[in-house]
Amino acid sequence: MRIESVRTVVTSPGRNFVTLRITTSDGITGLGDATLNGRELAVAAYLTEHVEPLLVGRDAGRVEDTWQYLYRGAYWRRGPVTMAALAAVDTALWDIKAQAAGMPLYELLGGASRRGALAYGHASGRDVPELLDSIRAHLDAGYRAIRVQTGIPGLDSVYGVAASAAGGGDRYDYEPARRTALPVEETWDTRAYLRHVPTVFEAVRAEFGPELPLLHDGHHRMTPIQAAKLGKSLEPYDLFWLEDATPGEDPTALRLIRQHTTTPLAIGEVFNSVHDYTPLLQERLIDYVRSAVTHTGGVTAMKKLLDLAAVYGVKSGMHGPTDISPVGQAAALHLDLAIHNFGIQEYMRHSPDTLDVFRTSYTFADGLLHPSDAPGLGVTLDEEAAARFPYAPAYLPVNRLTDGTVHDW
Q1: Which of 161, 202, 242, 311 could make an SS bond with 124 (beta carbons 3.0 to 4.6 A apart)?
Q2: Is 216 marked active-site?
Q3: Which of 71, 106, 120, 159 is labelled catalytic?
Q4: Is residue 394 assigned to a domain?
Q5: Tens digit of pLDDT for each residue in 19-28?
């Protein structure tokens, strides 16, 4: 079974996606997600100019060998562009292999370890009353775990806070990658944030009780000692995790946070290699791995990373916002179902236009996601629909402190 054709498809049904389509000599087509929010065309060019020519004629069944060939053979390793491109190839080849076997991908990964994957949704509000309404809407929509983000008094806009709560649990209308000629610049005040967030969780627990799993994303915006302070102040509210409390490139930062708080820590959505995690796992500085299949080298690499995490008692919490396409989301769900050390799965529902382009078979019921028993990933690409949504430049915001200093976003 040889690779006969390879094509990169860029489409923008509400937001930009990059999809790799590999077709074999016996007519099986596999899909891989290569979306890198705000840098989509960089990955598309890497695939088109450098990867596609290397694949035609190769044995589609040699998934591990192809991964090593593209990773080790390129000399320049790692980095978000390279690893997103490699992820797309790897995921598409796994899709093909599972379709050829006539079974869902999770069966090739060892079979199901659970009925479904617990998913968390994104509740937010510009103030506490609006946030509480958003949580209620998410619970009504079937979510059984909730990420909590809120506006900060004195700041005009804050990452993760929907422009309006009108969409409720089946829609999240905040799109951080905005279609503008230049990135939007937002203002940030860490001290105001640290004062406000504990009061938010106090109100949420008072309203919804102690059982509901609550998560919070710090989005890399704190210094280690600030993150330690927040983690300690949130301990009375029993968070499921505090995510990306500080930039994770420096493991010494996580050591300091760990010394001061027992709030569980999740990190890694901007990581792209197992090597980013090695010291964090070995020293047990984190509790959840936040990478996405799409950004971490595909199913092959993500499975190895999660198996290593299991050795240290660390669980999965794979990245799953709407800038991961339904192809990438499906790949994560197959891993979620198969691995032993599953923790939770992020799940934002894609727009109707996106679901017209990507026809999915995974399901969400009673708070659990299931990838379906369709052969392969269980996702197909409607290229005619994709062609109706051409690429549009979009940028993630730039963050500045109140004095104008560029800050982590």
Answers
A1: 161
A2: no
A3: 159
A4: no
A5: 999 999 999 9
What is the distance between the alpha carbons of residues 273 and 16, in angstroms, rounded to a whole number? Answer: 23
The answer to whether 219 is a known catalytic residue is: yes
Buried b (16+ CB within 10 A) or exposed e, 224-262: bebbbbbbebbeebebbbbbbbbbbeebebbebbbeebe
User: Residue 11's domain spans which residues?
Assistant: 3-104
* pLDDT over threshold 50, residue 74: yes
Distance of CA 349 to the CA centre of its chain: 13
Are 75 and 46 members of one domain? yes
At 156, the pLDDT band (50, 70, 90 cuts) reads confident
Contact 334, 377 (CB under 8 A): yes
Instruction: Give ∠ CA 280-285-288 in degrees, rounded to 5.
Output: 85
Hey, what long-range contacts does 264-271 have (CB within 8 A, 24 or more apart)?
Answer: 264/239, 264/240, 264/288, 265/231, 265/241, 266/215, 266/241, 266/242, 266/290, 266/317, 267/243, 268/319, 269/243, 269/244, 269/295, 269/319, 270/80, 270/220, 270/244, 270/295, 271/295, 271/296
* Mean pLDDT on 261-288: 96
Q: What angle do CA 77, 81, 87 make, to 5 degrees?
A: 85
Q: What is the residue-averaged pLDDT of the chain?
A: 94
Banded model confidence at residue 175, pLDDT cuts 50, 70, 90: low
Q: Write the CATH number for 71.
A: 3.30.390.10
C-beta neighbour count of 382 within 10 angstroms: 14
CA dist list (Å): 224 to 159, 246, 260, 288, 401: 20, 6, 10, 18, 17
Q: What is the pLDDT of residue 251?
A: 87
Q: In what order do the strands lie in the sheet with 29-33?
A: 3-11, 17-24, 29-33
**151 and 287, same domain (yes or no):** yes
% of the chain exceeding 90 in pLDDT: 89
Is residue 170 over pLDDT 80?
no
Task: Name the active-site residue from 138, 196, 219, 295.
Answer: 219
Q: 75 with 115, same domain? A: no
What is the rounded CA–CA span in Å between residue 266 and residue 277?
11
Give me the residues paired with residue 401 across strands: 188
Mapping DSSP to helix (H, G, I), strand (E, B) and coil, where does residue 218 land? coil
